[in-house]
Amino acid sequence: MQSLKVLSQEAIHLLEKNQILSALIIRELTKTCLSEIELNEQDRNIAKQLIINKEKITSEENYKEWLVKQFFSEEELLTIFSEPPRIDRYVIQKYKHMAESRFLKRKEQLDTVIYSLVRVKDNFLANELYLRLAEGESDFAEISKEFSLGPEKNTRGILGPTPVSQGHPALVNCLKNSKPGEINKPLNIEELWLVTRVESRTEASLTSEMELQMSKEIFYEWLQEESKKEHNKLLNMQTSLNNL
């Protein structure tokens, strides 16, 4: 990468020793990509407001005073602070055509579920609570508040929305195969017994927000792969020079 050619072998060694060489490469790769995206007036306004909020600047005069003390020029600072929206534009421009394919491969992981949960350590208690729930004698909110051992104790037994595929494989399988409103028999996971009920399941769809998410994932994967290549090039170059 052209911008990294200014690094001496001593600088490369120091950066690698302090475990910041990879981060520098990723930053430079990102800057190279974003050089294709124009910094427009809206970007500047958003970036300036981010600076004002971050630095707790109270007036235009204070903003100008703050700028004088900075190492970077105002344009450089606005360019740095405007990265998020420019990354969004870049990834849509570069990877939108690949978003649908990735979405279809990832759809099962992107579907979400809201479910009720009670978890206890005692099998007999779990079965008793299951029967009380199944027969309508109690509801998840009161049972979870009284007996549950997890954070659902404070949320009326409700968890989610959360990806259907997230969690222990046994719980994932249970939630995937449950009908909304159905009380599931106690499920043993390690030292706990879980009683669950799926409240709702939402299938992911390829909205514009999802296209952006998929495009970003593709970009960040490319960034990691490319940074590893550049990292290895620099280290191999250093090794070669050391062997001369």
- Name the shape in a single word: elongated
Helix/strand-derived category reads alpha+beta
Helix content: 55-70%
What is the rounded distance between the termini?
23 Å
Radius of gyration: 26 Å
State the low-pLDDT regions, or none: none
Give the biggest sheet. 4 strands, antiparallel
Count of DSSP H/I helices: 10
What integer is the average pLDDT? 93
Write down how many β-strands occur, each being a DSSP E stretch of 2 or more residues: 4
Series of H and E elements: HHHHHHEHHEHEEH
Share of residues in strands: 5-15%
Strand order within the widest beta sheet? 2-1-4-3
Question: Could you characterize what this model shows?
Answer:
60% of the residues lie in helices and 12% in strands. It is built from ten helices and four strands; from the N terminus they run ααααααβααβαββα. It has helices at 9-17, 21-34, 41-55, 60-68, 74-81, 83-110, 123-134, 140-147, 169-176, 208-242, and strands spanning 112-120, 158-163, 187-189, 192-202. α2 packs across α10, α3 crosses α5 (74-81) and α6 crosses α10 (208-242). It is α+β, with helices and mostly antiparallel strands and 244 residues long. It is elongated. The two termini are 23 Å apart.
